[in-house]
Design brief:
six-stranded mixed sheet; alpha+beta
């Protein structure tokens, strides 16, 4: 299966906070399910900027209830999967900032699997969601 590495807390927001667009500077023709890899790197400035952007989405209270903090959020491994349904250059989604957006649906969180990530899509060994 292939995976896409995404910095936290954006990966968490895809799986739990309703983020339905993954913004990229490049297009893809790929359609189908991909694993979500949470990048190891994350600055406190990135953490704060993501939550500021997500304000009003309802994701922040969910994170608080789940006990998610900058120190406890899972990083450096597979955290779930999502289906890429399309790649667009424009969208009404509040998550779209472009220039391209991977349209996401059916997020499925899974148990954390430690793994190194890579840029772009990358192949991973078979993983189980249970």
């Amino acid at each position: 299966m292939i995976a896409l590495s995404i910095r936290q807390p954006w990966a968490w927001l895809i799986l739990h906070g309703g983020k339905d667009i993954e913004n990229r500077s490049w297009q893809t023709k790929f359609r189908g399910r991909v694993l979500i890899h949470a990048s190891k790197g994350m600055t406190m400035a990135e953490w704060g900027a993501a939550w500021d952007f997500a304000q009003g989405s309802g994701a922040s209270p969910k994170a608080v209830l789940a006990g998610i903090t900058a120190n406890t959020i899972k990083r450096g491994g597979i955290v779930g999967s999502v289906e890429i349904a399309d790649c667009v250059a424009d969208s009404d989604s509040p998550w779209f900032v472009g220039p391209f957006g991977f349209v996401l649906r059916d997020p499925q969180p899974m148990e954390f699997i430690p793994m190194n990530g890579r840029l772009g899509f990358f192949d991973v060994p078979e993983v189980s969601n249970g």
